[in-house]
Amino acid sequence: MTASTLATPRxxxxxxxxxxxxxxxxxxxxxxxxxxxxxxxGTQVIILGxxxxxxxxxFAVPAxxxxxxxxPLRALISINVFRMxxxxxxxxxxxxxxAQVFADRAGWGDIAVGALALGLVAAGEPRTALHRGxxxxxxxxxxxxxxxxxxxxxxVTIRGVTPGVQALLTLPLVVIxxxxxxxxxxxxxxxxxxxxxxxxx
Length: 201
What we know:
This protein has 201 residues and is an all-alpha fold. It has one domain. It is 72% helix and 0% strand. It has 9 helices and no strands. It has helices at residues 13-32, 34-37, 42-60, 62-70, 73-78, 87-94, 100-123, 129-159, 175-197. α3 (42-60) runs parallel beside α9 (175-197), α6 packs antiparallel against α7 and α7 (100-123) runs antiparallel to α8 (129-159). The two termini are 14 Å apart. 33% of the residues are buried.
């Protein structure tokens, strides 16, 4: 894998500003306790809204859609390599700061998805039927992992499990559900679209 094989076009300036503003608001919300102070299901609604908004933007905003279509498929897959930081959930649970059931599902799930993403990126473009099939399977697994994490976090909150998932609503972990998760969801949807359309370069 060389720098040239994953060369990417420049993100449209408006999208760059929007991303920076979004991340800034998430950091502010985590620092001030805004997310942690919301009654259930306030945070869940916000995260789901961000997921939908990110996916819609990827399809409906012409400049952003053109930028995404210009990305190598492996670039979209490669951002998921960073999900191997799921070990952080396991570390928080080991210290008694995060529900073990959430850490086990989301942590190990993210580690697996990230490691498999690394393998897919190293394997090159999915031009063969087998490689495309493996990419479809990985993409489905990655989507299921995100859904499982959100459902488990909601279940833990409803059941009042202690420790719960409050650590996810404050810095630094709040960046994961409120910023990265919507981006990962959108990436999976866009990868599915690329695979179906045959645009696997």
